[in-house]
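2.7 Reproducibility. Because tokenized structures are sensitive to small changes in the input, we list the exact sequence used for Alpha-catulin, including any N-terminal residues retained from the expression construct. No trimming or masking was applied before prediction.
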Amino acid sequence: QITTLINHKDKPKRSDKTLQAIQRVGQAVNLAVGRFVTVGEAIANENHELKEEMSVACIEARRAGETIAQLTDVASLDHPESDSHITIFTDKTGVVKAARLLLSSVTKVLVLADRIVIKQIITSRNKVLATMEQLEKVSSFQEFVQIFSQFGNEMVEFAHLTGDRQNDLKDEKKKARMAASRAVLEKCTMMLLTASKTCLRHPDCESARINKDGVFHRMRLALEQVIDIVTDSRPNGENEMSPISIYSGIKEFKNKVEGLRENLYFLSKENLSTMLEVILEHTEDFTDSAYTSHEHREHILELSKQAKMELEQLVSVWMQAQNQKTKDLMEDLEVAILKTCQCMNELKREVHSAATSLAADLLKYHTDHMVLKALKITGVEGNLEAVAEYTCKLSEQKDQLVEMCRLLRHVSGTEPLEITCIHAEDTFQVTGPQIISAAETLALHPSSKIAKENLEVFCEAWESQLSDMSLLLREINDVFEGRRGEKRVYLSLPRPGKHNANLKALKPVKLDTEEQAKIAKLGLELHLLTSDVDSETEKWEDQENEIVQHGQGMSSMAYSMYLFTRGEGLLKTTQDLFHQAEIFATEGTKLASALHAFSDQVHEDDKPLLLLEAEKLISMCKQLQITAKASAQGKSATFTKVDACILKTRNVMTLLCQLLPLCFKLLRKNKAGNGCLKPAPPWKEDRIRTGTNAHTPERRVETFGIKSLENHVTNMTFLESK
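Resulting structure tokens (single pass, no recycling of outputs):
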């Protein structure tokens, strides 16, 4: 709008339409500034340390907006150029000055607001770090549960802030780094839980301590990485983290070579030779690799030799052309340029083929996860010798996958995919030893359910990373084949599928960034609430109690809905989600009935509160059922319904987190007062197990906050369409 005002052409005659248009633009600018400044002033009031600076910038912006509105108030004037009324026509310099003041003050407000956001993220990170330190030092289960609950809430806050920041980043490289760091934090949150529990159960076990320390160390590194990105500081290891790849080297080399057509003197032959040497040094990662096929190795060596020869020929013709620009020499130069670029293209194609074929073979070979299965079995058997044998095999597998990631990085094609490859390499490098320490702990304590569960969590992280690699490989092939524009949908909103004869197959819906961020935040909150519910249910001695059973069932279903927000799990389409929401609401209604029955066994003073909470639960479940059954047509309506279902499920789970400790407290109070409660009715026979995850997984008395293997946290993908 400002540009329109500044650039308008001065004409001798101005129509009423032109004058009205100028006035509308001026008013629109002023209104926009007013709305913008209102937000800035609200931010200033909430952040006293920057209030003065922000207020000054807001006043300047408002004044500039009003000046522009006054100077463009020309539609009602008979003679806009008259000296009695200063307008854009009599004082265009004034408009320019006002525009400059407006832009500078708006920029100042944005910079100050950005500083506040950065401060919020750093403050949130510091809270997480402080709570992590407390978690490391705890010595009792009860204390750990309390602190972990606080930790979960702080992680949700941190996820909200960093998720918004990630969406605001314009640099795709930073975006990918942020996504990788946030993925580590999400996975490690669950790893921290099981590793800490194992350490608390087996405090003298060295392998359990090593396992836990590894998780804490990785989380701290990820937290620091987030702050480095947010504050735009350069970590010490960044140069090491992202060395030049073969793809980017070839691209830059070709640009320089083709630039000789326009300018024969813009670079030296030494520069060009050095660039080729660097590229050929990187090809040694392929030729020296034990996993590169003999055929690929020979082709890469031949093409490397040919590239040197083509460059020598190019330099020879180039030097001659610098001395004498004849037609024949320029034609020879063009041929040399074409042959050099063609050779580099063939080299690029060969290393791509070598890396992607190796990756495809390895991923196919390791899909059965035989080594992980063997580690679980031998660990439970307490067979230390067999565990040692399979840990060696896992180390070999880790080396293969790490090498695969290094080679894929060279051919990834874009910086975000390069970073994803580096992150995958780091994940395999770190997770491998963690699986080994978890397996050793289980072998030393074969009857420990916590140790078994901990091993399952780390094995699942390994499996999910392998799954991520398949997606990454497809993305790399897309870039190579020029299909980068066809961004895939990674969230289930919805995916193709049929549910009965009357339903047409659902078409995949692509979510924009804001939708993805919103659904991911709700999903993470739901995820952490399921852990809280599990922590509460596992405090109960009687795991067959009806309240516990319904609570566990609801937690299991809520977890499957969380997986849906990640495009994972057994819920594949939005219809699956809506059906699951209905079953979840039904289970909640059954829990409310159980609470009514339980209220007959508590003291009269406690009964009203319990019944009030039960009524709240019934009301919320009815609302969820109505939402889940409502029809929705089109992408926007479908997303709104998905969002509403997950939001209402989260609200029910929040209430459940309050109900379970209340019931547990009343149960203990009554036991202390009466010796025992009246026997509970045989509700168990009434339980209906329906739906994808409506069954209650086998519970562990020994554990207190985690589900079985299929209900553990799975991988967070990093391709930034997620």
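The chain has five domains: 1-75+90-113, 122-231, 246-359, 367-481, 513-671.
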